Amino acid sequence: MSGDRIFVHVKTSDPISEAGIVAALKARAEIWISDDGQTTPETVALIVADEVDEEALQLLRTVRSRNMQRAVVVVSELDDAGLMLAVESGVAGLVRRREATADRLVQVITSVHRGAGVVPPDLLGRLLRQVSQVQQQVLTPRGLRFNGLTDREEEVLKLVADGLDTREIASKLSYSERTVKNVLHDVTHRFHLRNRSHAVAYAIREGFI
């Protein structure tokens, strides 16, 4: 019986690696190895690859197509480009193959199943540097931030949250009323929100303002 076990679906391009990991995890009481017919959005996909390359991304696309939303990747090598590619692809956990003991895999799988992200400590610094570079070199020159809001949108939403109407916001920011309305329309449309009140509530809840 699966009981309260975490469903894990193992996917590799190497049958020998897959057999070894499946055997190690099957021995653990916390884990239930699922086949293709047992996967759900709660299933944690465990992908084993030499590096985060097109082959690994294809394995990720395969598990996503089967409705698995959480993924852990075990890799032999991981450079900065592969690290960013993993993050961009929605990988929640990264483990180096040399550190992939059964205990470590269960620890990472459990954390990812609970909604956490897991990255080796030394890679975290590299990831933060990469994120900083993207912000400085790509987003900032375009007036964008990682939260998806421009400086102008953030200013307008803060003033809406303060209770100002369209005319007052336009006057305070030296914009036309049409510009303020367009900003609010863009935000509500992009984030699929109903109106300006919903936009403010969403921005506050997500920590954007």
Automatic annotation (TrEMBL):
Key words of the record: DNA-binding, Transcription, Transcription regulation
GO annotation, biological process: regulation of DNA-templated transcription
Coiled-coil ranges from the UniProt annotation: none
Residue intervals of the HTH luxR-type domain: 142-207
One protein family per Pfam: GerE
Entry superkingdom: Bacteria
InterPro entries membership: Sig_transdc_resp-reg_C-effctor, Tscrpt_reg_LuxR_C, WalR-like
One GO MF term: DNA binding
SUPFAM superfamilies: C-terminal effector domain of the bipartite response regulators
Name used for this protein in its record: Response regulator transcription factor
Organism of origin: Streptomyces parvus
